[in-house]
Design brief:
- The protein is built from 13 helices and eight strands.
- It has a six-stranded parallel sheet, sandwiched between helices. A two-stranded antiparallel sheet has the order 6-7.
- The radius of gyration is 20 Å and the shape is globular.
- The chain starts with 9 loop residues before the first strand and ends with a helix.
Length: about 375
C-alpha cells in the first residue's frame, strides 16, 4: 500500500514572533514580496519595521487586491520578478495566504497567519477565485510552505470568533481522518502539481497523520474553552498556545495527510443556502461534523461529547444557529446533492453515500442539536 505524508519544512510559534521574520527572509536573500491586506500590515507594521532593520532585509509591498485570482497571481509574479524578490510572504488570512502560495509555486514561501481561523496555512494547496470572487479551481504545489511563522500575540488580539471558527474546522479533523482510515481512501498528501493530469498514483494516510488528528481532537476537548476565554481577554495562556497549534498545525497536518470526509462536503453543500453566507468556514464545518456523526450512526456518547464542546465554545449545532430557520425539502435535497457530487470528500466515508442519506443526516443532526440546546438529551 502506498502512503504519503506532507508537512511544512519549519513551524515556529511564539509571542512577538514576527520580530524574527527577517531572520527567515535572510535565509533566502535580502528581499521578500509581502502579500497582505493593508489592514493586516497596519496591525503589525512596527514589528515589520523592527525585523527589517535588525536583519537587513526589505519587504516589497505588493498592493494586494484582496482576491486570489489568476490575474492577481500573474501580476504579483511580475512584481516579484521585477523587484528581484528572493522569497514570498503571505501575511494575514486565507486569501493572502493562498495568493502567496500560488505566486511562490512551492518555492521559498513564508506563511504568517494573523488569525487562527482555519488549518489551511500548512497545506500545499490553494483555492483560486475569479476576480469577482466566484470559485475557480484548486491548485496544488510540489511542497508545503518553507516556514510557518505564528505570532501568538497578534492572534490573541484578533477577534475571538476567528479562533472559535478555527476550532470548528479542527473539530472535523479526527472524525474525517478516522473515516479515511476505515475506507483506505486516498489523501491530498499524495497529490503533486500534476494531479489533474493523473500523473501520480494514489496514496493513503499514514499512522502519523492519524495520531496527529487524534491529538487534535483531544486538545480541543482539553483546552478549547480555556483558550476561548483567554482570547476574550486578549491574553496568552498555555491553553491558547495549545489551541493555536491545534487549529493550524495539528489540524493542518491531520486533514492533508489524514483525509477529508462528510463534514467538509456538507459544509460545501450548505454554502448554497444564502443565510449561511455570513458564517465562517469552521462554523459551518462544525455543524457538518455533527452531520457526519449522524450519517455514520456514531455512538451517542460521542455525539453528546461533540455537542457539549460546540456549545461550550459557541459553535453551531443546528441549522438555526446558521440562520437557516426554515428549509424546504427541495432546498435540503439541493444541499445534499452538492455535498454528494462525484469529486466531493463525502465519498471517502467507509460506506456508499447517497443524496437521500445525506439529507436525512442533516435533518437528524439538526434535531439532535436542537434537542441538546433544549435540555432534552
Amino acid at each position: 500500500m502506498r502512503k504519503a505524508f506532507i508537512s511544512p519544512t519549519k513551524y515556529v510559534q511564539g509571542e512577538d514572533e514576527i520580530l524574527n521574520l527577517g531572520y527567515f527572509v535572510q535565509t533566502f536573500g535580502e528581499s521578500a514580496l509581502l502579500i497582505a491586506h493593508p489592514d493586516d500590515v497596519a496591525r503589525v507594521q512596527s514589528k515589520l519595521d523592527a525585523t527589517a532593520e535588525k536583519f537587513g532585509v526589505t519587504f516589497v509591498t505588493s498592493n494586494f487586491k484582496g482576491e486570489c485570482s489568476r490575474q492577481e497571481v500573474a501580476r504579483l509574479q511580475g512584481v516579484a520578478k521585477e523587484k528581484n524578490c528572493k522569497c514570498t510572504i503571505g501575511l494575514g488570512g486565507g486569501k493572502a495566504i493562498d495568493t502567496a502560495k500560488c505566486v511562490a509555486e512551492g518555492e521559498a514561501l513564508i506563511i504568517v497567519p494573523t488569525i487562527a481561523a482555519t488549518d489551511a496555512p500548512t497545506s500545499h494547496s490553494a483555492v483560486l477565485y475569479t476576480p469577482d470572487g466566484a470559485f475557480d479551481d484548486y491548485a496544488y504545489f510540489k511542497q508545503s510552505p518553507s516556514v510557518i511563522l505564528i505570532d501568538t500575540t497578534v492572534i490573541a488580539n484578533a477577534p475571538t470568533r476567528f479562533l472559535v471558527s478555527g476550532m470548528g474546522d479542527a473539530l472535523s479533523t479526527y472524525f474525517e481522518a478516522r473515516a479515511n482510515v476505515q475506507s483506505y481512501t486516498k489523501v491530498n498528501a499524495g497529490l503533486p502539481c500534476g494531479v489533474r493530469e493523473g500523473l501520480c498514483p494514489e496514496a493513503r494516510g499514514t499512522k502519523a497523520a492519524f495520531a496527529l488528528a487524534t491529538l487534535c481532537y483531544e486538545t480541543l476537548l482539553t483546552d478549547g474553552l480555556k483558550a476561548k476565554l483567554a482570547c476574550d481577554g486578549n491574553v496568552i495562556t498555555p491553553a491558547l498556545e495549545n489551541i493555536i497549534e491545534t487549529n493550524i498545525l495539528l489540524s493542518g497536518l491531520g486533514f492533508e495527510s489524514g483525509g477529508l470526509g462528510a463534514a467538509h462536503a456538507i459544509h460545501d453543500g450548505l454554502t448554497i443556502l444564502e443565510p449561511t453566507h455570513k458564517f465562517m468556514h469552521g462554523e459551518k464545518v462544525a455543524f457538518g461534523t455533527l452531520c457526519q456523526l449522524a450519517l455514520e450512526n456514531a455512538d451517542m456518547d460521542e455525539i453528546l461529547e461533540v455537542l457539549d464542546f460546540c456549545i461550550s465554545v459557541g459553535l453551531p449545532v443546528c441549522l438555526e444557529d446558521l440562520n437557516v430557520t426554515e428549509i424546504s425539502n427541495e432546498e435540503l435535497l439541493a444541499v445534499a446533492e452538492k455535498a454528494c457530487i462525484p469529486e466531493e470528500s463525502i465519498h471517502a466515508m467507509p460506506f456508499p453515500v447517497t443524496v437521500e442519506m445525506t439529507a436525512a443526516a442533516i435533518l437528524a443532526a439538526d434535531k439532535l442539536g436542537k434537542a441538546y440546546k433544549e435540555g432534552l438529551l
